Amino acid sequence: xxxxxxxxxxxxxxxxxxxxxxxxxxxxxxxxxxxxxxxxxxxxxxxxxxxxxxxxxxxxxxxxxxxxxxxxxxxxxxxxxxxxxxxxxxxxxxxxxxxxxxxxxxxxxxxxxxxxxxxxxxxxxxxxxxxxxxxxxxxxxxxxxxxxxxxxxxxxxxxxxxxxxxxxxxxxxxxxxxxxxxxxxxxxxxxxxxxxxxxxxxxxxxxxxxxxxxxxxxxxxxxxxxxxxxxxxxxxxxxxxxxxxxxxxxxxxxxxxxxxxxxxxxxxxxxxxxxxxxxx
Length: 280
Description:
280 residues, alpha/beta, seven-stranded mixed beta sheet, 26% strand
């Protein structure tokens, strides 16, 4: 399994300090299986760069949305395969009790916010409301579960034959917990992350910022480290960086967290272009 980061920011594309190393695009992660199954995790602005880098249009691509906040869907209409006839694009998103996935996406992909309607994008589009539990996409067994974040939000566990990737970009497992982390059975997202080879996880805030933003749906860097330790993962990628945090501040934030906690798992900063090879 090859995993590549194409966008690592939360909220809006970063207009703030220097971000040449971490990048300024919002969430998008490419997952390519050994048999050619192609997944895209979220459709933030990074998906445009990913689509432009694909040399030949794929026959099929599956886009797995964790939720429908703007920073996770704002690049979807600019994804080249989405606009290419003959390509089968499967879009997976969390279900709603009141509106279909098509209706909710069409609020953005329609005039006056966008010049075309969803049905006019060119590719063969198939929408799926994500089941809570396991389902198969090509060679992957995918497990989805609700996680703690405003509005309906899921995290994903991508299982290949010899490795596991967990993706939880927007997550506040410490919400309402006096002494975080609790035991595993009581912690949001634990079953998705347990024993994963690679965990890509929300780490948006400093400790001080989190104290002012409890309930916003995100984690501090320290909480991301604690969650990774609780879940006994092999490798953590801090992700969903605050757009106000530049390269130097993120370097300092991550290095201090590693120095303070001395984790027994590997930590690699989430930077655009970072690539990870899992399994054989």
